[in-house]
Amino acid sequence: MSTVVLASDLEHEVLLPRSWKLPIGLSVFALLAALGFGLSLTKGEASMVAIVTGTRGLGTINLSFPSQGAIIFLSVLMFALVAVSWWSSITRTARLGPFQLTPRLRIGAIRISAWVGTLFGVFFVSAFLLWAVAGRGLALQFTSLLSGALFLSTPLIFGAMAGTVCERVGVINVSIEGQLLAGAFLAAVVGSATGNPWLGLLAAPIAGALVGALLALFAVRYWVDHIIVGVVLNVFVTGVTSYLFSTVLARSQTFSLATRLPTWKIPLLSEIPVLGPVLFAQNALVYIMYIAVIVLQIMLFKSRWGLRLRACGEHPRAADTAGIKVNMTRVINTILGGAIAGLGGAFFTIANGLAFGKGMSAGRGFIALAAMILGGWKPKGALIAALLFGFADNLQNALGVVGVEVPSQFMLMAPYLVTIFAVAGLVGRVRPPAMEGKPYKG
């Protein structure tokens, strides 16, 4: 007589080590919102927010909120999330399925993962914005804030996608900064020389792929430490592009003319209230980014190519036994990752209508690396993390319009501060590919 064992019968509760970083951090920021933002205002002050409902439709809706009351309400919601976070840390158990390696934290039927931090971040930023524009008589252009954040996130998203492809296959890609800069340089030169920004867009991934090929050569073929190679490539690309800028671009107008990709308003979609002007009235490079994220998310986890790629990063010996050429797979996908980052580098020049400038990537490659880690080495997670950093980057522009007296130096630091806090607080929750950075000598 045979016994049937259901998968649900194999599930079991596991006790996880307690972590206090998230509840302590959320408690501090909740107190800051309640005491620093809410109680520092008077009852009569109001915060005005302008929302564009469509590119041609209803126009702009101006909303007015009682500043102190709205911030106190948001603070109450934040303290509720703080309570949930503390409770989840005290009763830190999870249900582990039969084929599940990483448990997901639960309180009853509520999944506790990034959702608490995400909701808290939305409430805290909303409270900060209401406090910043309180009593100024000028409306915060909310739609422009979101649209600009999406646009500024574009190179970070491409860079994070590049890092995801490379590290999933087992190669640590610290040279994203150099790949972005190389893509920006070649896109500007080709676009300027031909007068056609589309040709510059085609040239950008070629530059990134060349840097990716150098990374693959030294990291995969000669087993040089991946991080050292990445740092050296960043310095190399910075030096070469700076030299060519000083000796060629600065002395010839042929290669220093600015060209720009068109901005397209997609019919019907751009007329969707609120979201239309943000998502569907963007630069052409942003639409390419949408496609890249969707395709990579599907291909990495739903295709034979993605399975082979991930196998080379998780267990190359098993992949080799199955007939996969591990080192060749790593080389090809490292070059592909470089091409993706190079495409993102076009943002700095032809997407913005700018000529090339020295070091114009300005550390965005390292922020993209942080977005990749924060996103758990997944395209959709990296997308959300990159949008967070892009939003922090665009805050200085949005608040400057309404005359907020926040030091410009602090606003310039905002995306980097967000990077530090986000990675320091959440990096322990994700697991990198098991064999990343380790050469395969089979």
Overview of the structural elements:
The protein is α+β, with helices and mostly antiparallel strands. Helices cover 61% and strands 8% of the residues. The protein has 15 helices and 9 strands. The strands form 3 sheets. Strands 1-4-5-6 form a 4-stranded antiparallel β-sheet, with no helix packed on it. Helix 4 packs across helix 13 (364-374). Residues 1-10 and 98-110 have low confidence and may be disordered.
How large a portion of the residues is in β-strands, by DSSP E?
A: 5-15%
* CATH fold topology of the largest domain: ABC transporter involved in vitamin B12 uptake, BtuC
**Average of per-residue pLDDT values:** 83
The total tally of domains equals 2
How do the strands of the widest beta sheet line up side by side?
Answer: 1-4-5-6
Shape: globular
Helicity level: 55-70%
**Which parts are unreliable, with pLDDT below 50 for 5 consecutive residues or more?**
1-10, 98-110
List keywords for this structure.
alpha+beta, disordered N terminus, three-stranded mixed sheet, 442 residues, 61% helix
Put the structure in a nutshell.
This protein has 442 residues and is α+β, with helices and mostly antiparallel strands. It has helices spanning 21-38, 67-90, 114-132, 142-168, 176-194, 197-221, 226-247, 275-279, 284-302, 304-314, 316-321, 326-345, 364-374, 379-401, 408-426, and strands spanning 12-15, 46-52, 60-66, 93-96, 104-107, 110-111, 140-141, 263-265, 281-283. It folds into 2 domains: 7-140, no CATH class; 150-429, Orthogonal Bundle (ABC transporter involved in vitamin B12 uptake, BtuC).
